[in-house]
Amino acid sequence: MTYVHRNIIIPADITANCQQLSEALGGPAGANMFITGLSTDGTSPATHFISSGMIFEEFAAVLADPAVMFAACEAAGLPITLAQCQAILGAADVTEQGPFEALSRLALKLIQTDIV
Fold it and tell me: CA 20 to 30 Å from 8, out of 14, 60, 108, 115?
């Protein structure tokens, strides 16, 4: 398997769906994605979530094309429509940029939390 870097930023309102899809379609590399919150001022509540790192090349292809995502979901038996795949990828910012470059471009900041 070949890994590639992707930086993915999604709106907070689709986080649960994206987490489920990522785990189902991305295998081990897709688990535990989208747990870091973002906002314009770096304070809660999160308006977006980010996941950045290495993923399987096949998973990156799913993130690049709604039709490929839909076919992968169908093959995995996931109940999702092509229109939902289009909406998810239309709302997501998927790039090869590093996380801080993408955050700067989108005027977002990591939400700082207290360490307990």
Answer: 115
Angle at 21 between CA 19 and CA 22, to 5 degrees: 65
Element (H, E) at 49: strand 48-56
Q: Which residues of 10-34 are buried (b: 16+ CB within 10 A; e: fewer)?
A: bbeebbeebbebbebbbeebbeebb
> What are the distances in angstroms from CA 61 to CA 38, 43, 108?
25, 33, 26
Is-contact 27 111, C-beta < 8 A? no
pLDDT in tens, the chain (116 residues): 799 999 999 999 999 999 999 999 987 778 889 999 999 999 989 999 999 999 989 999 999 999 999 999 999 999 999 999 999 999 999 999 999 999 999 999 999 876 66
Amino acid identity for residue 113 in this structure:
T
Q: In terms of pTM, does the model score above 0.85?
A: yes
